[in-house]
């Protein structure tokens, strides 16, 4: 992309930029089918007039907005050159990253193209990669540190990205096994009333981990890997008394561990192993009087060498857009009313 002078100067107080798209890239890849990507950009920059003619894009408006639009098109072209298509969601996230950087809110040098083109794992015709800046930093932290905590609301990819890194490490022979675990804590139900054996009762709590595995591996290979012990999916209670060497270990839903369980789990760490702990401290389902181990561990281990805390927010939600808005709405309500998840802290259904 290049910016070139135009024949007529823009009106006073405005700037103009012209972008030439290389012939190797069809305009539909940049503007989207039916100009869907262009409409996202126009909605985000209502003060900028964008006109397309042939393989040229002209933008006129306030200097700051035009500069952002120019950077956006440059970043989009960098992504397209990797062979990865642009989507409406990717354009919206790129705009958010560029605006945060322009407002001085960004504290790193990562660009949207760097975030959106970082491949973690390719499986079954799809590639898993981070979609936000915080997700990229979370993934990078997993590479750099032995113990990483991924803390954030539902839908931010905490567990999914950790599992992708685990499968990547297994395939690269960096570890010899993957261990996935969750505390079997009831969220309003009672295990004892569920039908079946103990395994049948616990299985629903582990099901999300199985589902993620099926996204990342050939489903036919999973039973064999589990039978050989290469992949283990088990309740947290099964970790007691073990030392886990040469393994990638993930503790999911860690907000539902007690302080004692969290200490027990972290001290299972063996040689050549890595631990990722994920959870949402706003969704604790522990009995009254039981302190969440995930809340407490932040006070205990923050700043410890080779331990990293990655904190994701509603801006990192990659589910339906409404999920992020719901998270923000609850946070606003709690802030204004002194509540937690919309409920007064003293009467949370006897949960803390």
What is the number of helical segments per DSSP (H or I, 4+ residues)? Answer: 12
Helical content, roughly? Answer: 25-40%
Radius of gyration: 24 Å
Q: Looking at the structure, what is the overall shape?
A: globular
Beta-strand level of the residues, as a percent range?
Answer: 15-25%
Distance between the termini: 54 Å
Low-confidence stretches: 1-7, 187-191, 346-352
Describe this structure as you would to a colleague.
This protein is an alpha/beta fold and 352 residues long. Helices cover 39% and strands 17% of the residues. The chain contains twelve helices and 13 strands. A hairpin with a 2-residue loop joins strand 2 (49-53) and strand 3.
Main attributes of the structure:
alpha/beta; 6-stranded parallel beta sheet; 39% helix; 3-stranded antiparallel beta sheet; 12 helices; disordered C terminus; single chain; 352 residues
Write the layout of secondary structure elements.
Layout lengths: L13 E7 L6 H5 L4 H9 L4 E5 L2 E7 H19 L6 H15 L9 H5 L4 E3 L2 E3 L4 H12 L2 E5 L6 H14 L5 E6 L15 H19 L4 H7 L3 E5 L11 E5 L7 H8 L7 E6 L13 H9 L5 E5 L9 H17 L1 E2 L2 E2 L8
Parallel strand pairs: 6-10, 6-11, 7-8, 7-9, 9-10
Antiparallel strand pairs: 1-3, 2-3, 4-5, 12-13
Helix pairs in contact: 2-4, 3-4, 6-7, 7-8, 10-11
Outline of the structure:
The protein has twelve helices and 13 strands. The protein has helices spanning 27-31, 36-44, 63-81, 88-102, 112-116, 133-144, 158-171, 198-216, 221-227, 259-266, 293-301, 321-337, and strands at residues 14-20, 49-53, 56-62, 121-123, 126-128, 147-151, 177-182, 231-235, 247-251, 274-279, 307-311, 339-340, 343-344. The strands form four sheets. It has a six-stranded parallel β-sheet with strand order 8-7-9-10-6-11, sandwiched between helices.
């Amino acid at each position: 992309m290049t910016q070139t002078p135009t024949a007529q100067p823009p009106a006073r107080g405005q700037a103009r930029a012209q972008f030439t798209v290389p012939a190797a890239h069809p305009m539909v890849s940049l503007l989207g089918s039916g100009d869907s990507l262009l409409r996202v950009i126009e909605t985000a920059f209502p003060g900028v007039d964008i006109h397309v003619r042939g393989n040229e894009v002209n933008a006129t408006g306030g200097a700051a907005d035009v500069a952002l639009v120019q950077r956006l098109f440059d970043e989009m072209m960098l992504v397209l050159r990797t062979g990865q298509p642009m989507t409406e969601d990717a354009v919206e996230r790129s705009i958010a990253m560029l605006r945060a950087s322009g407002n001085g809110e960004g504290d790193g040098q990562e660009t949207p193209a760097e975030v959106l083109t970082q491949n973690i794992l390719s499986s079954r015709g799809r590639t898993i990669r981070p979609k936000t800046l915080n997700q990229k930093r979370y993934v990078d932290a997993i590479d750099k540190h032995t113990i990483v905590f991924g803390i954030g609301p539902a839908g931010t990819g905490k567990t999914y990205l950790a599992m992708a890194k685990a499968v990547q490490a297994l395939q690269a022979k960096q570890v010899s096994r993957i261990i996935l675990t969750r505390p079997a804590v009831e969220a309003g139900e009672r295990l004892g009333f569920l039908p079946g054996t103990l395994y049948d009762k616990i299985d629903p709590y582990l099901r999300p981990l199985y589902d993620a595995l099926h996204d990342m591996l050939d489903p036919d290979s999973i039973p064999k890997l589990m039978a050989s012990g290469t992949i283990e999916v088990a309740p947290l209670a099964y970790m007691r008394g073990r030392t886990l060497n040469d393994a990638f270990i993930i503790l999911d839903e860690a907000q539902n561990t007690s302080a004692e369980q969290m200490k027990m789990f972290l001290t299972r760490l063996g040689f050549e192993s890595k631990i990722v702990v994920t959870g949402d401290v706003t969704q604790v389902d522990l009995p009254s009087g039981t302190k969440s181990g995930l809340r407490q561990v932040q006070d205990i281990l923050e700043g410890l060498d080779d331990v990293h805390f990655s904190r994701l927010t509603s801006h990192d939600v990659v589910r339906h857009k409404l999920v992020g808005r719901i998270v923000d709405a609850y946070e606003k309500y709690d802030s204004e009313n002194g509540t937690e998840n919309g409920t007064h802290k003293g009467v949370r259904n006897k949960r803390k």
